[in-house]
Design goal:
Elements (H helix, E strand, L loop, with lengths): L2 H28 L6 H34 L6 H34 L7 H43 L7
Helix pairs in contact: 1-2, 1-4, 2-3, 3-4
Length: 167
Amino acid sequence: MGPRAELSLAAVLSGAAVTVLGHLAASALVLDGDLHAGNLRTALVWSPSGALAAAGAAWLLAAWHRRAAAAGRRWRPAGMAARATVLALALYPLAVALWLPASAGIDRWLDATPAMSWRELWRWLPSVVLGATLAALIAGSVPAYASALPICRRYLRRQACSTTDPA
């Protein structure tokens, strides 16, 4: 697997994990530490939105790094991780806006009794996107940066050495 593919895969997995952990942490703060299986299920349902934002951020970051490397600028892992975190947080509202109707469609397909109408869902969409974005900024910024740092360090290390070794 090449460095860009590894960056993308690691970013997607990290984005999903940070979303789950951030949702659980926010739920624990709001519900005064009352965590139950329903919170984990809800967190897992929201994990594709974090994975989608991280995938877009990884794709943009790899292209940005390619242009910077072609211009002769060297990036450090901490700076690259900060760029990745900002990109992922900037793409997260769009990912939530795409994931909410998709998950509602999946729920409608799997369950015969939908929870709300499409009209009501579209009215709630801006509020849900705003709430999820604020929760991501508050509960997810530091964990996202902490998970992006080793991923970016490995990516830059693998980009620096020109070897055919797959690992």
